Amino acid sequence: MIRANRRITIDEVAEELGISHERAQNIIHDILRYRKVSARWVPRQLTSTHQEQRMAVRLEHLVRYHEDGNDFLFRIVTGDETWVHHFTPESKAASMEWKHPSSPVRKKFKTTPSAVSESYRGSTLKFPYSLQKSLSGVDSR
Question: What is the pTM assigned to this prediction?
C-alpha cells in the first residue's frame, strides 16, 4: 500500500485496513521501518546546456558593457510588470513521502511560481531613476 502511494497518511492506512491509528503507526514505523521524510532541496535543475547558455549571455553583456560603457546600459529598457501566477509550487511539507532506510535519497528542485508577465502599453518608464539605482556602485568611465 505504501509502495503504491508513498504520500499516503497513517490515518488513510488505518481506515483502509480497519485498524487503529496507533496500530497502523506501529506497523509502519516499528515493523516496516518506514519514515516520513521530505525530499532534499537542491538548487534549480539546470542542465549543462542551460548553464552554458546563461554563461554565454552574461559574457556577451559584460563584453558589450566594456566596449560601450554606460551607453550600453542606456539601451536596456525595463519597466513595471504585472505577474499572474498560474500555480503555487508544492511546499516541502506537502511533498513528504514514506521512505524505507534502503531507499535512495530523493531530490526536489526548488521552484518558483509559474507566471506570465504583462507590460501595459503606454505606461511610463521611470528610466533615470532606474538607471541611477542600477548604476550605484558601478565604476563609470
Answer: 0.38
- 84: which DSSP letter? E
The set of cell numbers assigned to 76 is 536596456
Over the chain (141 residues), the average pLDDT of each successive run of 10 is: 87 94 93 80 67 85 89 70 54 73 68 48 46 53 45
Phi and psi angles of residue 79, each rounded to the nearest 5 degrees, phi first: -160, 175
The DSSP code sequence of 87-132 is --PPPTTTT-EEE-TTSPPPEEE-----EEEEPPTTPPP-HHHHHH
Q: What is the C-alpha to C-alpha distance for residues 71 and 53, in angstroms, rounded to an integer?
A: 24
